[in-house]
Amino acid sequence: MAYAPSGYPIALIRSEYFLDDGTTVCVGFGPDRDKIRLDDVEMVQEIVNMWNPEIEVLDSTGHDWGNDHWSGQTWTTPKQGQFQLTGPQSLGEDARLLLAGSDWAAGWNSFVDGAIETGIKAAREIDTRS
Q: How far is it, in rounded angstroms, from Cα 95 to Cα 15?
């Protein structure tokens, strides 16, 4: 796993699968889909060289979730304080509405684990109000 500082086309790259022939399938994530051509092996090779020039990129592909008709986005990555006035906590203790979902999670934001976390918190809150 490797992280890059702000401004790099790939901010995170990690190994996903280890194949029998010694090949490793990696997954990368970047902050700006316009900064990388997902199927451009040479471009991806240049980026990977910043971490380790001994790694050979054999192929590259990806999915542009931001332009995906169904999702229209990737994971939420709110900046600090972004939901302070509009998030679930802004509803107040007397609210009859509780929100749960991965986007509101304190940990594992945008993963199913985050949805479970907020679901448990909401269920506990409902239980204490009963």
A: 44
Which residue is listed with tokens 């979902």? 101
Tell me the helix, strand and coil percentages in the chain, rounded to 5: 30, 10, 55
Beta strand extents in the chain (DSSP E only): 2-3, 12-18, 24-29
Instruction: Name 28's bridge partners.
Output: 13
Alpha carbon distances (Å) from 2 to 11, 28, 49, 76: 8, 9, 12, 21
pLDDT tens-digit readout, 92-129 = 677 778 878 887 777 777 778 888 998 998 899 888 88
27, 36 contact by CB (below 8 A): no
